[in-house]
Amino acid sequence: MPPRDLLHPEACLNANLRRANRRVSQWYAQTIGDIGLEGTQFTLLATINGFGSCTLGQLAAWMGLEQSTATRSVELLRKSGLVHVRRSSTDARAREISLTGEGRARLEAAMPAWRQAQESAVAALGKSKATRLLAALHEIESVLSE
Predict the structure, then answer these.
(1) What's CA 24's distance to the chain center, in Å?
(2) CB < 8 Å & 24+ apart, contacts of 77-84
(3) pTM, 2 dp
(4) What pLDDT score was predicted for residue 103?
(5) What does the alpha-carbon distance between residue 97 and residue 47 come to, in Å, rounded to a whole number?
């Protein structure tokens, strides 16, 4: 049971969110671990796919990553042949990222395992609680970004 005193160290939002994040990551890893992609790689590929093509800055901002972290992560995907990285046609300072055929194929192959992990997590929490959790996470991100 969470402590009643919100100023008690056991009520630290950062520590509790990090612990919950690790548990959720483990939950997904148990299901999607056999697809040859780390959870973060899957999320990056899915995000890039959703954009179609995006700049490194757009990807970093959407994912809530520091630019240097996004750069390192994208470089690993590029070295694995999963993404193309090229100079933007509209801004020579920006780099555009898109999936390669192999990246698209790996993402597509991973989707059934991700759906299974997502469905089982939603079922374990219950749809209503999962919906409220997502809303709370979006609100936290929005409020603390201001």
Answers:
(1) 12
(2) 77/41, 77/44, 77/45, 77/103, 82/41, 82/45, 82/106, 83/45, 83/48
(3) 0.85
(4) 96
(5) 11
| pLDDT of the residue at 94 | 86
Q: Is 5 left (phi over 0), alpha (psi -120 to 50) or beta?
A: beta
Q: Give Cα separations from 107 to 21, 33, 48, 111 (angstroms).
A: 22, 13, 11, 6
49: which 2 tokens?
């796919």
Amino acid (1-letter code) at residue 38: E
Strand locations in 9-48 (E)? none
Q: What angle do CA 76, 79, 85 make, to 5 degrees?
A: 85
Please choose, from the candidates 117, 131, 132, 135, the residue with its C-alpha nearest in 3D space to the C-alpha of residue 24: 117
The vertex-10 CA angle with 118 and 136, nearest 5°, equals: 40
Question: Which sign does the torsion angle of CA 18, 24, 28, 31 carry?
Answer: positive
CB 84 within 8 A of CB 100: yes
